[in-house]
């Protein structure tokens, strides 16, 4: 590949054609690397392909495909509640200036999801749901947000029921039951 960039060969049509072929193969390899999670290797291959033949139509198409795989990786981290992992991948995408990616939207979603998680851990389920609603408004197509919203609602309902039981147990002075219910509440909201 380095040989194809030599000035003596760059003016020959067969070398130019070979350069385009090598560039296409490198761009395809970049997509394969991205699909296997090797984004650093994918970006290196894309850079090298661009250096050899420029931003050809195939290079642009494959570069966009790599960007889509990278966004999918960010979404997987968001679904797993790995917000630092999602943010670090967004930082890399931001440095790469990948075309057609709404990074600001993904960053805002990550922020909202992390806020919802923290609020849920504190037992503030209605505020957590507001954060999830705001995230859903940004990207209604992301099913992971609805999944997190459903979990939040279920935990809120369970916490409400447990709180009622806790108050009854305190009123009845059933301290064994109070301890058990309090333990359950702490499982739902550890920072409550």
Major sheet description: none
User: Stretches where pLDDT falls below 50 for ≥5 residues?
Assistant: none
**Number of helical regions:** 9
Instruction: Write down the overall geometry.
Output: rod-shaped
Quaternary state of this entry equals single chain
Mean pLDDT: 88
Order of secondary-structure elements: HHHHHHHHH
Number of strands: 0
Note the gap between the termini.
59 Å
What radius of gyration results from the CA coordinates?
25 Å
Commentary on this structure:
The chain has 192 residues and is mainly α. Helices cover 81% and strands 0% of the residues. It contains 9 helices and no strands. α4 runs antiparallel to α5. The chain is rod-shaped and about 90 Å long. The termini are far apart. The relative contact order is 0.07. The mean pLDDT is 88.
Descriptive keywords:
rod-shaped, 0% strand, 9 helices, 192 residues, 81% helix, mainly alpha
Concise structural overview:
The chain has 192 residues and is mainly α.
What is the fold's blueprint, element by element?
Elements: H1 7-10, H2 13-35, H3 39-53, H4 57-79, H5 83-96, H6 103-121, H7 125-138, H8 143-171, H9 175-188
